[in-house]
Design a protein that fits this description.
mainly beta, seven-stranded mixed beta sheet
């Protein structure tokens, strides 16, 4: 019902920046809670940043003051601006959508985009 497509990943040097995008097919996109997760080899998938339909944001402690999540409801897109990147940020980043005011209880995932931080 909801398709999510991530883009913007790649190779960047430590201290650099990337902006990830997630394009959603959802009707009434503005009513979904959106998030970015990441998974590194040998590690469990973890929440990086979330943004609710009411534009309430939350971040993992490891990325606070470096990453910014935002959404453009007119474009059905959520973004993750990543600054001051560190090698430990290397992971596959996944976009997530959860129903809230509509489609409650649903949970959708994108295919992921690779972010590699290395000199």
């Amino acid at each position: 019902q909801v398709q999510l497509v991530e883009s913007g990943g790649g190779l960047v040097q430590p201290g650099g920046s990337l902006r990830l995008s997630c394009a959603a097919s959802a009707r009434l996109f503005s009513m979904y809670n959106m998030g970015w997760y990441r998974q590194a080899p040998g590690k469990q998938r973890e929440l990086v940043a979330g943004i609710t339909s009411n534009i309430i944001r939350n971040y993992a402690d490891s990325v606070k003051d470096r990453f910014t999540i935002s959404r453009d409801n007119a474009k059905n897109t959520v973004y993750l601006q990543m600054n001051s990147l560190k090698p430990e940020d290397t992971a596959v980043y996944y976009c997530n959508a959860r129903g809230d005011l509509v489609d409650y209880g649903s949970n959708y995932w994108g295919q992921g985009t690779q972010v590699t931080v290395s000199a």
